[in-house]
Amino acid sequence: MPAENRTLKETVIAITGASSGIGRETARQLVAAGAKVALGARRLDRLEELVLELGTENAIAVQMDVTSPADNKELVAKALSAFGRLDSIVANAGIGHYGGISDNSDEDLMNMINVNFAGTVWTVRAALPEFRKSHGGDIVIISSVAGLRGGADEAVYAGTKFAQIGLAGSIDRELSPEGIRVTAICPAGTKTEFAIGTGRTEGDAALDDYMNPSDVAFQIVTALQQPRRLRTGLWTTWSMAQTS
User: Fold this and answer.
1) Scanning 42, 86, 102, 237, which has the fewest C-beta atoms within 10 Å of its C-beta?
2) Tens digit of pLDDT for each residue in 148-165?
3) Sign of torsion over alpha carbons 40, 46, 50, 52
4) Could you say which of 117, 122, 157, 162 is catalytic?
5) Residue pLDDT, tens place only, 91-107
6) Structural fold of domain 12-237
7) Domain ranges of the chain
8) What does the buried/exposed string (b/e) look like for 196-217 if buried means 16 or more CB atoms within 10 Å of the residue's CB?
9) Closest Cα partner for 48 from 78, 77, 19, 12?
10) CB of 18 within 8 A of CB of 95?
């Protein structure tokens, strides 16, 4: 018999980088599936707009910076305060600066390392105590195909994505005996605000061949809906128009 999907109704899921792109669309799909969401990002105005769209009974907005361990703990604390539980966390926040290894400023590269990798570490560490209390949970890390193969003009960005995949694989081995699932989702290019002005150009016709944020959100929701006896460690997806 085929496995039956796990319902997400009344589950509580925190999402970083929720003010736009993949995070924003993931919040919409999760609420449509019956979940409650705690939305974390720096742009509070956008989060508040999304909360109004989703309904204040279904979503809360938390202004935060993923590079701050304290802010990540605050996201978890506010999810618990609003909804009484935390079932899953989606570590989605990320930035990109493209160019050769010598092309970007030290500050830009350090910021990318801190947001993409350290920010993921702090998000996971903030959620983990609650998952351990409840003897289960889901950690979904949004990485990239760049973390599987690298590429010209994206060395440091790809390095942060390799690091996320290494982190996901390691904590999967560490935490799966405790009932905590870890999934690294590695999409190819996705048509969002990501890297606009730092390597991508708004309106570039090449973006039309990219995936949509809803495609990646579908992967996230599907991973969370798996029966608890199953887990997906690594999921990578391309649009049919993209070359690998």
Assistant:
1) 102
2) 998 888 999 999 999 999
3) positive
4) 157
5) 999 998 988 999 999 99
6) Rossmann fold (3.40.50)
7) 12-237
8) eeebbeeeeeeeeebbebebbb
9) 19
10) no
